[in-house]
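Protocol step 4 of 6: structure prediction from sequence.
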Amino acid sequence: LMDFAQDRGFAACLSFEDAYYVYVMYDAYRARYEAEWGDASYIRDGSAQTRHEQSLPFSGFALAPAEDAADFNRSQPRLRMVRATHNAYDVCKRSVNKARGLDVLLQKLGLSWHQVVAVGDGDNDVEMLQKAGMGVAMGNAGDGVKQVADAVAPDVTQDGILWVVERYFPA
């Protein structure tokens, strides 16, 4: 991932238990993060590319053009980039997705998928929305995400999550 990001000129990081370590294009990554999401206090300069020697990362993340993400997916047999937001991608093993993680949690809690209301807005939410008893896409989601959902809430910036809570969990 890091060699690919460096060659293509996009930012990439790894997520660890203490912070996100940006291995490629730290300044660009931090600036975008602060502009879009605010507090970037847990974003660290990982340009020395050594943090993974202390422990394994949970995941990777890249800020890449769609063409580069598609090229990465064609060239990597074990990894994939899945769009989280506009030109921002989760990087994970091909077999990993949010639904698989929730499978483990549901089993531990003794619950089933028909008891789940899942909410998402990115391509990285599709499998989860498909499996949930009620899959809700946010209004800002792409068409592919909305197509697999059972309902579409208002945009996340228009209190879409509040709409879901009030609609599916009335007081």
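Step 5 (inspection) to follow. The chain has seven helices and nine strands.
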